[in-house]
Amino acid sequence: MTKTTTQKRYGMVIDIDRCDGCGACMVACSLENNVSVVPPEAGLHRGLTWIRVYSITNEKEYPHSDTAYLPVSCQHCGNETPCVGVCPQSAVDVDPKNGIVSQIPERCMGCRYCMVACPYHARYFNWWDPVWPEGTEHLLNPGVTPRMRGVVEKCNFCHGRHHAAQERAASEGRSEIEPNEYQTACAEACPNGAITFGDLADKDSEVAKLAAGPESFQLLKTLGTGPKVYYLTQRSWVRDMAAKTPLPLDGQSND
Amino acid sequence: MGFSVKRRDFLGLIGGGAIGAALSPAPWKSLDDVAIWTQNWSWKPRLPRGPVEVAFTHCGLCPAGCGLKVRSVGGSPVSVHGVPGHPLSAGFVCALGLAGRYLSYHPSRIVEPTVVGTDGQRRGIPFKAAVRQLGKWLDEARSGGGHGSVAILDNRPDRMRSLAYRKWLGALDGVHVKGLREDAPINRLRAMLDGQVPELGLDIARARTVLSFGAPVLEGLGSGEAGSRLRGRSGTEKPYIVQIETRPSRTAHSADLWLRIAPGTETVLALGLANILVSEGLYDKEIIGRTALDLDGPGGYRELVARFSPKQVARITGIDAATIKKVARRFASGPAVVIPGVDPGGGPLSPEAQTAAFSLSLLNGDVGRPGGVVARRVSETIQLPGTAQLANTVELADVPDGSIRLLIADGIAGGCAMPTSLLKRKLNPSEGRVVSLSPFERSAMHEADLVLPSTTPFESIDETGVPIDSPVDSMGLTVPSMRAPDYSVDSLHVLSMVTKSNVPKITELLRSRSDRIHAGGRGSVFDPSKGESAPITEFKTAGHLWRALLDGGLWTDSSATFTCPPFRLMGADAAIRDRLHKVLEQPSTADGWAHELVLMPFGWRDAPGDGPLPPVMAKLFRETRLRLDSRFATICPGTAKDLGFAEGDKASIKTSLGSITVEVVLDPAVANGVVHVAVGPSTGAFGDATREKGDQPLDLPSCKNDDCWRVIPAKMLEVVS
Questions:
Q1: Within chain A, which residues score under 70 in pLDDT?
Q2: What is the CATH number of domain B53-105?
Q3: Closest approach of chain B CAs to the CA of A16, in angstroms?
Q4: Class for the domain spanning B186-376+568-574
């Protein structure tokens, strides 16, 4: 029997200067993870978007204005993960083997403490039953179970893909997943190559090199939550904005 | 000592038990179980089951024709991925391509033929009755009108299906009309060249500089392969992208240089750039002197551009003179591509702006050189059965006003929406009728007299077309990954029923082309399952090639050489030359600087300008407001303040033709004196097809003069509730 045993630390680097706000990452994520189509009255605050692209500006007027797009998903905090400590149901799980922070919907009782605790507004509550337009249910990804009304959900680095990659590796007698075998849907879909996903513990990986680079930073680093999602930009105003507490993002989802 | 239980003890036991139970997981677990049980109803989502299959095809949602790997479970396509190494798409799939399969279940899907009755109400009719009605109108149109009274509007006019349309129309003395497409301006360049000119492609990928006049070059224009190079992802040197645009588009945001031009002044800027090329001698004097037919002499190009000094151009366009000089010198430093963009909602630039832009390509010697404008080999026309001649193919702008009595609109999406008034102008005012073959209620066609439901691109076989940037001809098929519903019809089947003639089936037409390609023996075929190409000579029989295409393969032709013939820098059309000479004298409606407020409608590139959005895209853009639809108007805070509006206010945008009500959104990136409204499907009314049209902004432009509606003089008024 082959076991995948190596300690990993999966993370992501998002190059803000490459992101043009096309939203392909959001679409790919929703399709991959069967994120339900909530009704139009959901508005800005009650929607479901595991990765959400925010538009931020330097607050100057044309022609000196500058816009940046900031994709924000669960940051998979590696230190004192805020959502873990507050969950009364132990419905938030941090996998010690790879650092992925997961939500267990069957345990979640919908108290939404985790949403309050999350400083990145990256958790979403199912206010409605998971429904899709008539006829489209048979287009859903059969590898991911839709979540029910009344529970919280969030990015899990495409857990279904991780499992599939592990299974493939084990069935071929390998103990390791090759880096190109496991990619998140958002990284795969980004036409600009703005999202790089991989093992931060592997110093030779592209994601680790980018995360260690001089242009790299983490959102709200001063909180000490140790996010495993890093950002890159050469624009100082974007860095300044990303360091503000709370994050100055419109339509935050902590409703 | 006896054991006695007092009332106090009993209450203590009960109380203690209750506290103990509350501290145990039991009640909470029960509560949780009950909560889960309440979700366990018959409407809970059922995931697809069945055998897993993987197939390759091409996306038919736009002319880019990206290669797709489709994974199906139980016959349903559950995921779509790009095909690495694909010669045209290079593994790229846009958001629309990822979610496009959901369109088959869109609430605005047309599920039965409908006709507008004498009372003005639309009602469903049986298919056979619809065909009879179409036949009756066809007879009336032919008896009442002459040449061109019957027309087919085709958004992708270069397919084999289009050839069958032309044959059918030829027997009726009709015309084949090209719909609005992103590659339409190339015909303007062809018209500037003398003699027989082959099909032209913009070699974006190998250009040193891309001069884009509002073209969505970083939003999916052209092939994915070109997009990859433009974004610097292919490992080759990235072209330098200059985006000339008023609106803060995604391309403007990501371009190497964004020239924030005053609305409607593109002609002036193009001639200003030409002024620097000419005055500084940044062109090959010997070659251009020999091939340009209108460079010198009275009223010549040199005389024209001399009036557009950098200082003068800077004053009008709002771009400083130093930047104009810098861009002109960069442009002249190597092969460059000029793209007068067609906006999915804002439409094309004016004819004179397109001409002025392409004159830069001619002046720079880019026509016929790699990295500029290249020619495609064109296969010999396939002969279809029947004696009728092929009908002419013309641009919509060239169709005489009021000449069409029966217009049949092909259902394929072109990616561009157009104003209702533009289409209506071409119809006979009293007897003009429109028949739409479409899967959805869409854009200008929602007012069609008769609507027949057709298939979506994931349900039917067809050709993908050739992307605007492809230097070679190609053939890829959209092989169905979903079963077409029983109520949908094929356009060629309808035509054959109406005239009781022998119109070939689409598979026969495609097979004919495949066989012709095999007989030609040119080019290579890409196998998506292996990720590699093989010369066509390796396919022993025509049947082998056809099988490869049905398996998602792509044939690409070998490249052609092309020497630029003599040309006219101001074009052959005297009216356009005249307008070029008068551009400084008579600011037209297109010259936005003459107005206090202008409306600039626009469309999102990878949400079809003339079709609906897949539900997941509608939901995400609604929840994030990443793409505002036609219910919102973006305006800069300064202009809004001057007009008395604040964020979230309701406003009425009024033009000479009507008004729409919008919600004001302040955006500091918007230019002063400009209001932007998106054309396209509403993200806020999913499930309510009647509210989804989203093309109301296109009811506002008049389109009387130049088929251009980019810049519309408008007023913004307060809505009194």
A1: 1-6, 245, 250-255
A2: 3.30.200.210
A3: 11
A4: alpha beta
